[in-house]
Amino acid sequence: xxxxxxxxxxxxxxxxxxxxxxxxxxxxxxxxxxxxxxxxxxxxxxxxxxxxxxxxxxxxxxxxxxxxxxxxxxxxxxxxxxxxxxxxxx
Length: 90
Known about the structure:
The chain is mainly α and 90 residues long. It has a domain at 50-90. Helix content is 67%, strand content 0%. It is built from four helices and no strands. It has helices at 3-8, 30-48, 52-62, 66-89. Helix 3 (52-62) runs antiparallel to helix 4 (66-89). The longest helix is centred in the C-terminal third of the chain and has 24 residues, at 66-89. The protein is elongated and about 80 Å long.
């Protein structure tokens, strides 16, 4: 048989190449996926502001001046904004 004729013929499908032999991706049901995403968002949203009340406690315990507390809050806000922007880039 001529090599040019065999090259144009389609390859015979074997069970390993059959379209239904491709493993399917496992996913959550839509309701469970939504609940997981909502709980993750709520946990991260609440955790982002959790340390801020501690700054007032630290001011009282360690005797910070009011301007130091203002700088601490500003630093916290700027750093959380930078992290939020970096996480959107990924």
